[in-house]
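Quick one: structure tokens for this chain, please?
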Amino acid sequence: MLDLTRRARMGLLLISPERFATIGEGTERGSYRERKEAEAAWMLRDTSRIADVTFTGITWTRDDVQHAIDAFTADKVDCVLAIYLSWAEDFAWIRFLRDMPECPVLFCHRMRDEIRLKDTHDDDEFAEYLCCGGLVGSLEASGSIKRFGRKMMATFAGTWTQVLERAEQFSRAARARALLRQSTFGLLACMNEVMWSTYVDTYALFRDIGPEMRFLSVAELEDTVNCVSDADARATMERIAASYEVLPNVDPVKFLASVRASMGMERMAEKYNLDMLVLNDIDTVLFQHIGLRPGFWPTSPDVKTMVVPEGDIGSGIAFAVLKLLGGGHVNYIEPFHIDVPSGTFDAGHAGPNDYTDPRGKCKISSDVRFAKTKWKYAGAPFAWYVFPEGRKTMLHCSQQTGTFQLVATQVEAIHTEHFLATYSHSHFKPVGEDCQQLFSRLLSQGVTQHYCITDGNLIPAVKDLAMMLGCEFEEV
């Protein structure tokens, strides 16, 4: 399974001209080479705070650029941060653009916080003047960026502080791209036949986004659930019951069955090394064989597999993107209705939803939506959760054309008490627009009803990742 704790891996490419190397020798601030070596040292130190950095030294020669490419490739860097330290010949840069294997590249011009040049007739001042000429080199390099037209290429100009911020965001997106390409999704057991707009091309999923898809059966899930011992299931149920309020409508037999089914689902996902399980939890075959839909994912902090409901692979991508970019709790919602007087909308979702963030509010409740059905464990309980308050990134993913689309916005989860039976939920308020504007734009974009939310503003990193994956991107 994916190592969600690993840092981004960044190649650092710093380009300088060998012909300037000896200029300024014997001056107060040293030669051009000495000044640039000192600059490279603190650049390496600072970038190492945001990523694991591969750096082979300043690129002065053709051999240097090949050495850098070989090291970046061997270390499997997620991205490369490239900077001209001053003007430099094209030969190193164009070889990098031609020969570096496909990889996200961020080309930056570092603006100095200040420049204090005096009379450049002085050798020390002249060397410093040459050292300050990064804008010349960057502008020249931009022409080759245009000519080569590499995919996953971005440019930026800013102070060093701003470059670091941009590089941190870019490397986070590149890390997510790399992890997605190593990931495995599982579909249990089919896409949802009443929600055709959620269908995606699983070949394109592998080709464009990265995950390999495994197709799992309810029959195997049933066998796995039956192998969960009474002792394990009961110990887990008792731990959950001790952690959250259990409402009077909860049947203990069905509670145990729901916990056992959740544990079976998780163990099956672990068997297949799944990073994401897309569960069609309203499939009648699931109800016939399991008697309920699992309601307590995750049953333990040790569970690593992510889970989304209703057989929606696109929403699994959105969930994984937010998890990989932000690292925090991710929840699953669909907007239900707009309250015009308050300018808010209610949203949430039934079925598996991460309930373990202590900032939220959780109760154990009967699934009243299915309480009157014919299934064996009708009304089996689930973790009824109110999402934590605060600013959220709300992300959608689907494939309404030949290309996947990522559609993102910012919302505020506001104070909410439990009120919407069967659904984990909250009240939400759009940020920077009203509900009419938000949902008019979503309707115009062409989406589905499924969204994922997580803390903070991850939209800039989502935009970078969309570029790297070749996805359509829209901020609404």
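Residues 160-182 form the longest helix (23 residues).
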